[in-house]
Amino acid sequence: MEDGKLPAISRSLRYIQPSHYLLRIECVSAFMNTNIEKYESERFEAGGYKWRLCIYPNGNTKSIGKGYISLYLAIAETKKLPLGWELDADGKLTRFNVMKTQSGFPQFLSLDILNDPSNGYLMEDSCIFGAEVFVMKYGGKGECLSMIKQPVDGTFTWVIENFSTLKEEVFYSDVFTVEDFKWKLILYPRGSSKTRNKSVSLFLELVDCETLDNQSNKELVLPLKEGMGSPFTSV
Asked: Which of 44, 136, 223, 230 lies at a CB distance of 3.0 to 4.6 Å from 88, suitable for a disulfide?
């Protein structure tokens, strides 16, 4: 939601009820005259997550909802979700994360419109609210660009994420400079031709070898680290 703006409500007429959850409120007139500021529904499951509907019968006064019914969708059981979780319920306005566990509309329906029988929202002093939740699951490709400063101590660190899921035969690191020479690492996750499917192969390549005279010698150490908390192993 942008500052000073309300999320848009798309209104359409349909005869099929919401497929994931229905909340029927009977004696709406009595419900509006209670001291209930916020009502939370029972939990329901959709898209692999647990949810609740949250209704403010006289509006969420903390978010310009006075004179309206305020309606929100809230994700439940967040303590069971992994650290740093985030998901989209429709890819537009309903992004949920640890800092935002509910999303909805402070001005969902005017109380004047609700209480007018000609509008058809009330039947025998009862009203039904519903929810359909479609969680976006991203299966596309992506990449991560990391800007690495040139090493000042002759050390270059190459972080490879999700190593066990790598499918390409060979990977190349960014070119880095040490002592005025340009280098890059070459990785074969399943081994090079001689060690195929037996071990990981890692090579250091001098990129600008034409600048190296025949008398130059360099010492090579390739340390490997299994995890973020593991020590380095030099080879």
From this structure: 136
